[in-house]
Automatic annotation (TrEMBL):
Residue stretches in coiled coil: none
Protein's recorded name: DMT family transporter
Source species taxonomy: Bacteria, Pseudomonadati, Pseudomonadota, Betaproteobacteria, Burkholderiales
Record membrane topology: Multi-pass membrane protein
Compartments in which it is found: Membrane
Family assignment from sequence similarity: Belongs to the EamA transporter family.
Species this chain originates from: Massilia agri
PANTHER family per the UniProt record, alphabetical: EAMA DOMAIN-CONTAINING PROTEIN, INNER MEMBRANE TRANSPORTER
Residue ranges constituting the EamA domain according to the UniProt record: 6-137, 149-280
Keywords: Membrane, Transmembrane, Transmembrane helix
Transmembrane segment boundaries: 7-27, 33-54, 66-88, 94-116, 123-143, 149-166, 178-197, 209-230, 242-260, 266-283
Amino acid sequence: MRSIQGYVQLSFAMATVGSTVVAGKWMADIGPFTANALRLGIALPAFVLALRWSRQTIPRLCRHDRWLLVAQAAAGSVGFTAFLLLGLRLTSAATAGVITGTLPVVALLLSVLLLGERPGWRAWLAVVLAAGGVLYMTAGAQGGSSLEGNLLVGAAVVCEGIFILLNRRLRRPLSPLVLSTVLVALGLIASLIPAAIELLAAPQLPTEALLGAVYYAFVPTFAGFIAWYAGSARVGANEVSLFTAVAPLAAMVLSVVLLGETLSERQFVGAGFVVAAIVFQALQRK
């Protein structure tokens, strides 16, 4: 029963990750920093309340860790969302969902290039499968997709991969809740000035964009975080990584149901390769 609860929580968490591309489509008409400031500003009080409820506190950190957290916030809390929203203006949500699903493989590749790690052959097969799936899908960009949009979404994934690597360089480990609260706060601070400039140029905030920001803040950013770590506590580490495959599949389904997009054969094939890559990487971790 404990494992089943974990499976449900992990599936829900990854489904919310997939749904970020739908929320991003709703927010695509406003500036990326404005959208990011909205979702972080809405999510921050929820994280602070959760921190107080759990009786956790933010510890005193050394200068190295403080600057590392600033870099993490720039890459993960700001860079990822900004590039994703810009990319979603030019590509379909389904395609963007598949590309963001390559995050575990991109993080692995960055660890090889930047940290000199030496993964096994299954990990390299995962890299080839993920790259092949995305290239095949991008080569025949159609159904609202474009090469420029796909590259911007790819840049978002690289930002998130850098965020993951930087987290491994912290000298003082932080609990997931503490880390998330700090990064949400830093990301909000970093987004305020660019958001103000965007609002001066285009002060309109469509209702759909506001609803998208509220959803992004409470569901993927907060509820998804809680569900992921709750599920991870109930399921073995090897099984946890397999559930990241739910994200690109959820993105494709939700893009059809909520946005009315039409899926192409290339998108199906690309998603299949990306899911296979995630499975092979999970086997490598095992």
